[in-house]
Sequence to fold (353 residues):
Amino acid sequence: MSSPKEYLYSLVTGKTKGPLAWLLREVLFTLSFIYGLAVVILAFIHRANQVRLNARVISVGNITLGGTGKTTLVEYLCAKLSSSGKKIAVLTRGYKRDAAAKGLAGMGDEPAMLQGKLPQVHVIVDKDRVRSGIKAIKEYAADTLILDDGMQQWRIFKELEIVTIDAVNPFGNYRMLPAGFLREPLSALKRADIFVLTQVAPYEDTSGLTAKLRKINPRALIVESMHEPVSFSNVHNPDEVLSLDYFRGKHVAAFSGIGNPQGFEDRLCSLGINIGLPIRFNDHHDYTQSELAGIAREARENKLEAIITTQKDAVKINRLETVGFLIVALDIKLSITKNEAEFDRRLLKLYPV
Fold:
């Protein structure tokens, strides 16, 4: 039996058929109209009374639900700007975090991953981004604030609005929540200064998507990017790094709790790895010791040679006890493949000499 989330996905994508499915879709369409109207009103009210923070504010967000590569772009921006001497703070909500836990464990998976990889950057978890922005400026002397998942942070004035768009499935079924995957109407893309197309395969034709974006927002820069595998690292011993060829031709288990598990699995296959046991959890899943032990048990039963997961999931499981099986994370980085020079120029424009 499918989970409620899986059933809802099948429903809104039209995969579930029948009279009941038709009726439920009609209900969802009505609710999406109400939701869309409420979003437009709220955005108008907040943007009419925006707060200006005493630092450069860069927003990285998206217009749809699911993974579009925001976190890897935030990491890319932090590395680029901090290398030029900027004092960076990342402001994030920390979705599904354990607020009672201490240190990285209490930050949530994506903020903890960023903080672990970028120790020179302050990652501040707080659902109130104005409050966390003031804290970053006062306590850490931050001159640049990066809003992680910031497109819907309407009440904060932003010097640069970057919107990530999945080149494979940019807008889902083009409907608003809950009948589709849009968090705002497509007209909201007019606010963007830069579009970053993510997961663009080599030689992929993006002219159709580019034309659609230019029609909505002709002034925005359109950048293409891809997530490039770098290496594998042992989840319980991060200093142990394995080359990308290490698992070529081998049979492994692959598990993830991310917004786009298919992209992760496709990337492993592109490295010549055979996935003998694919396991998918909901996005931001909080793993238990018994779940990890169960994955290892299934891997042994299927005579697989290793277990591979994502960087984001690794943050959740490296606190658990080892299960006597090699578990590694695929390390990736974002590479800009088109219009990188203009992208850098627009970043530098934020800091006049």
